[in-house]
Amino acid sequence: MSSKLNFKAQFAAFKANSEEWVDGKSYFFWDWFCSEKALKIKSKLLMTKDDKVISKLGLDPEKYYVTFKNNCPMNGKLYDSFQICTHDEKGDVVIWCAPSLGYKSQEGKAQLVDMRVRKEGEDGTITSNSWKELTHKLTTDPILYAASFDTFDSLKEGIK
Fold it and tell me: Over the stretch 49-87, which tens digit does the pLDDT of each residue have?
């Protein structure tokens, strides 16, 4: 099962096209509405985006794992999202991200939610017009950037 691998191992499996990545032809997806044939291509795109988010936020790839979901909104088109979860017994979602939303009202926009920031009472949601814009904001938004390096509490104290 893919969730037993940390992201470092998942990424290595992806690069090697190994059985752990194929994972019964689910390619780290846990839910989908598209054809099974599309999962491999979608997974390739999401793995590189995951890698970028983990890197930009300074997350340790050995402490997290990722899962993918193909979403089917009632009012819009299919879109993909990924979750970065803690690689422990809890498997808590730390980051949720959709590189391109499918809801009619936000179609094509990229969105990331940092659950660590949400726990601290901040919104923790970034919505951008594009994936490129969103990844730029990851290192320029002071709240999310600080949360990534476990300095969120000291930043909050400095703001007060």
Answer: 999 999 999 899 999 999 999 999 999 999 999 999 999
Assigned domain for 83 exists: yes
- 156, part of any domain: no
Domain that holds residue 62: 2-151
For residue 153, pLDDT beyond 50? no
Q: Which two structure tokens, joined as six digits, stand for 81?
A: 């999202």
**What are the Cα distances from residue 137, in Å, to 33, 126, 134, 141?**
30, 8, 5, 6
pLDDT in tens, 88-135: 999 999 999 999 999 999 999 999 999 988 776 677 888 999 999 999
> What torsion do the CA atoms of 132, 35, 94, 57 make, to the nearest 10 degrees?
-30
Residue 159 lies in a domain: no
Task: Mark 84-112 as b/e (b = at least 16 C-beta within 10 Å).
Answer: bbebeeeeeebbbbbbbbbbeebeebbbb
Q: How many domains does the chain have?
A: 1
